[in-house]
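>> received
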Amino acid sequence: MIEHHPHQGPDYFYGIEGNKILIVGNSHWLSKGEADHPDITRHVIENVTSGKWRISFFSRIMLYFGFSNHDDFWRRVAFVNYVPGAIGIDDERYNHIRSVADVEHARERFLRIIRDLKPDFVLIFSKKIRWALPALETLPLVGGLPDAHMGLLKEDEHTARVFLLRHPQGARSSEMASVIQAILSHRTAA
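>> returned
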């Protein structure tokens, strides 16, 4: 199985407001005749930041953080899809992880990425993968984070704050921008 490499912006370790942020989507899908490859995530981000591709998912997330330029934003964050390889082609883009082995592979890869990147915040823009995530130490929501579920993920000596958020396709931009600002100011002891 092909495993996609995460995008890590050159300024990731400086982050946004001093926070290292890992943004997580659900999955990549391929156009008919397109071949899957390990650098597909990086290829997508390069095309988005260059302006060659306009993909609503990436544009909305950038705007939630108050940025208006893709390169300025995506150079400061890391991005990966939870499903390690392409989910399918065209009409299969909304498919779910299919098997126990796929779920185990996705979890292992996700934890490896957390160990490698050591993000302060992990923002997952897809609640439909909640059941496939590693166990989180759940915390009560503080500071009024509507429609955002939070937990701590402890991996080795690192703890990341994980937020499950709505997919941008079904979310109101003004509400999501408020949620992102609340998350960035969230200071729960980890």
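>> The chain has a mean pLDDT of 83.
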